[in-house]
């Protein structure tokens, strides 16, 4: 049986509350697909060179500082390769670490450890990169009321894992999919305008058809669209690609009648200035769509 234990290190700091768990079946499905892609007919190198009875222990080590995310995918990568592997985590999802920190120890059949290595690293490096970048965004907005959130600009098939990584970095999740909430974006509004429809009336008519539990968000790219969005019943007004001065003015015009969200041109260099305008939410596609994988290594002892 695979063992997966975790003990809190004395050094790392936590960047989030204990993150909501990703369902095990979702983790296993993603990892199994990755293993099937990487070794569709087995690992012929390991099977050729490594005796079947050989056993080994490997350590997962950080080669640069960051925030960890990857417990579930690492455990699954080795368990699904061989149920005889055991993984012991020395750090938890959401905790920070320095270069040189040992994050986990993996022991079991040598062939299985070698076969599961790349899938475990690929996923953990990406997820830890997302958690690390998110934590940097959150740190830049400390002292403000703004929440850092992700977007749907995720890797196809990995969204559930990447959103978990955002939470590990102290961020929050936006809508998971197109089915979760109404978000009337610029293209929707352009189609309404092309048909000569009054925007406020069109939005109000649409909202009246929704269950009361469904969130209603409207994107605007000009200050003069705000009143129509509010009259149409927007729960959140997304201020898209506004400069800081117009963001501040937009927050004042909305005046607490809806949540305010800033999006567009959100980078580490700009996020503090955006947060200082008083917006409630800052959504950043950069958290997931172009993040750099963190440098982690797996070495056999």
From TrEMBL:
This is nicotinate-nucleotide diphosphorylase (carboxylating). Belongs to the NadC/ModD family. InterPro entries: Aldolase_TIM, NadC, NadC/ModD, Nicotinate_pribotase-like_C, Quinolinate_PRibosylTase_N_sf, Quinolinate_PRibosylTrfase_C, Quinolinate_PRibosylTrfase_N. The keyword Glycosyltransferase applies. Residues 1-22 are annotated as: Disordered. Residues 43-128 form the Quinolinate phosphoribosyl transferase N-terminal domain. Keywords: Glycosyltransferase, Pyridine nucleotide biosynthesis, Transferase. The keyword Magnesium does not apply. It catalyses: nicotinate beta-D-ribonucleotide + CO2 + diphosphate = quinolinate + 5-phospho-alpha-D-ribose 1-diphosphate + 2 H(+). The gene is nadC. Pfam families: QRPTase_C (PF01729), QRPTase_N (PF02749). Residues 1-11 have a biased composition (Low complexity). Residues 130-299 form the Quinolinate phosphoribosyl transferase C-terminal domain. Its EC number is 2.4.2.19. Pathway: Cofactor biosynthesis; NAD(+) biosynthesis; nicotinate D-ribonucleotide from quinolinate: step 1/1. It is an enzyme of class 2 (transferase). SUPFAM superfamilies: Nicotinate/Quinolinate PRTase C-terminal domain-like (SSF51690), Nicotinate/Quinolinate PRTase N-terminal domain-like (SSF54675). Involved in the catabolism of quinolinic acid (QA). One of its GO terms (molecular function) is nicotinate-nucleotide diphosphorylase (carboxylating) activity.
């Amino acid at each position: 049986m695979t063992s997966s234990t975790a003990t809190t290190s004395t050094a790392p700091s936590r960047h989030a509350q204990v993150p909501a768990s990703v369902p095990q079946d979702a983790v296993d499905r993603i990892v199994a697909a990755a293993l099937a892609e990487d070794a569709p007919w087995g690992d012929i190198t390991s099977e050729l060179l490594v005796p079947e009875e050989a056993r080994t222990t490997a350590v997962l080590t950080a080669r640069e500082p960051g925030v960890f995310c990857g417990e579930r995918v690492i455990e699954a990568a080795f368990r699904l390769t061989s149920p005889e592997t055991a993984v012991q985590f020395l750090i938890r999802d959401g905790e920070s670490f320095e270069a040189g920190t040992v994050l986990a120890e993996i022991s079991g059949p040598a062939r299985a450890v070698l076969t599961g290595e790349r899938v475990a690293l690929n996923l953990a490096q990406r997820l830890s990169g997302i958690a690390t970048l998110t934590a940097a965004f959150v740190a830049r907005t400390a002292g403000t009321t703004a929440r850092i959130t992700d977007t749907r600009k995720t890797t196809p098939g990995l969204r559930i894992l990447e959103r978990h990584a955002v939470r590990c970095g102290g961020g929050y999740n936006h809508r998971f999919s197109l089915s979760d909430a109404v978000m009337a974006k610029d293209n929707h509004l352009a189609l309404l305008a092309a048909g000569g429809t009054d925007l406020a009336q069109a939005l109000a008519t649409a909202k009246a058809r929704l269950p009361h539990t469904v969130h209603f968000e409207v994107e605007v790219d000009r200050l003069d669209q705000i009143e129509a969005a509010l009259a149409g019943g927007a729960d959140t007004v997304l201020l898209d690609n506004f400069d800081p001065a117009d963001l501040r003015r937009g927050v004042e015009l909305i005046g607490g009648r809806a949540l305010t969200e800033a999006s567009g041109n959100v980078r580490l260099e700009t996020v503090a200035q955006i947060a200082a305008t008083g917006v409630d939410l800052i959504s950043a596609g950069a958290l997931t769509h172009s993040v750099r994988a963190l440098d982690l290594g797996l070495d056999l002892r």
